[in-house]
Amino acid sequence: MRFDIITVLPSLLESPFAHSILQRAQKKGISEIHVHNLRDYAINKQKSVDDYPYGGGSGMVMQIEPFALCIEKLQSERDYDEIIYMTPDGTTLNQEIANDLSTKKNIIILCGHYKGIDQRIRDIFVTKEISIGDYVLSGGELPAAIVVDAIVRLIPGVLSDETSALSDSFQDGLLDAPIYTRPAEWRGHRVPDILLSGNEAKINEWRDEQQLARTRERRPDLLND
Ligand code: SAH
C-alpha cells in the first residue's frame, strides 16, 4: 500500500514513520510512504503557498495551485483510491474507517496549515475528510501520521501474531480486557488467579467478561451501536 502525503513541513513526518511497526512495514515492502514538500509546487519565487482570505478575517489560507500541481503530478503516475484531507470538520477517525482504508492501494493525504485550505481543493480533489477528534491542532501532519499508523498496522503481514490487531479494542466493538505480565505479585498486588491457572477456556471466558464489563463502564455507547 502506498501513501503520498503533501505537506509544508516534511521534516515533521520523518520520525513517526522511522520506528517500530511503521518502519518494519516499509522495510518488508508492505507499505510505502512518500512525503512531498508542497513548496516544491509553489508558483511564485518566494515559494509561498498561502495567501490572505477573500472577504477578510484572520489567518492565511493555503492556495489551490500548489496542491493541484502536486496532486495532478501524482495522478499522472498512478491511480489513487482516495484523496484524504485531514480537517477538524471531517468524519471522526475510528477503527471502522481504518479497517476500510487498509484495503486500499494508493492514498494521497493533504495536510493543512494556518486557517486551512481553499475550499475548492476540497470540492474538486478531496474524496474523504477525516478528523482525529474534536480539537484543533496547528497542522495536519500529526493527524496524517495517526491515520497512516492506524491503517498500516492492519495490513496483513505487518503485525506479528503476538500483537495481532484483531484482539485490540474496537475491532469487535468492545474495549480490550486488562493485561498483566510478570511478576505475579508486586507489593501485595496480585495478578488475577485465573490468568495463572493455565485453563485456556476459563481464561477466554474471563477475558470476554472483562471486555464486556469494561465497555459497559467506560463506553456504553459502543454497546448501543
Ligand atoms: N480553521 C480550521 C482549523 C485549521 S487548523 C477549522 O476551524 O476547522 C490547521 C490544519 O490543521 C487544518 O487544515 C488540518 O489539516 C489540521 N488539523 C487541525 N486539527 C485537526 C483535527 N482535529 N483533525 C485533523 N486535522 C486537523
From TrEMBL:
Keywords on record: Cytoplasm, Methyltransferase, S-adenosyl-L-methionine, Transferase, tRNA processing
InterPro entries to which the protein is assigned, alphabetical: Alpha/beta_knot_MTases, tRNA_m1G_MeTrfase_C_sf, tRNA_m1G_MeTrfase_TrmD, tRNA_m1G_MTases_N, tRNA_MeTrfase_TRMD/TRM10
Gene Ontology biological process terms, A to Z: methylation
Pfam families: tRNA_m1G_MT
Reactions this protein catalyses: guanosine(37) in tRNA + S-adenosyl-L-methionine = N(1)-methylguanosine(37) in tRNA + S-adenosyl-L-homocysteine + H(+)
Record's keyword annotation contains tRNA processing: yes
Subcellular location as annotated: Cytoplasm
GO molecular function, one term: tRNA (guanine(37)-N1)-methyltransferase activity
Enzyme kind, highest EC tier: transferase
EC number, as in UniProt: 2.1.1.228
Domain tRNA methyltransferase TRMD/TRM10-type: residue ranges: 1-224
Entries under SUPFAM superfamilies matching the protein: alpha/beta knot
Coiled coil: none
Binding site for S-adenosyl-L-methionine: G112, I132, G133, D134, Y135, V136, L137
Cross-referenced CDD domains: TrmD-like (cd18080)
Keyword Oxidoreductase: no
Function recorded in the entry: Specifically methylates guanosine-37 in various tRNAs.
Quaternary data: Homodimer.
PANTHER family in the record: TRNA (GUANINE-N(1)-)-METHYLTRANSFERASE (PTHR46417)
Family statement drawn from the similarity comment of this UniProt entry: Belongs to the RNA methyltransferase TrmD family.
This protein's name: tRNA (guanine-N(1)-)-methyltransferase
Source organism of this protein record: Sphingobacterium bovistauri
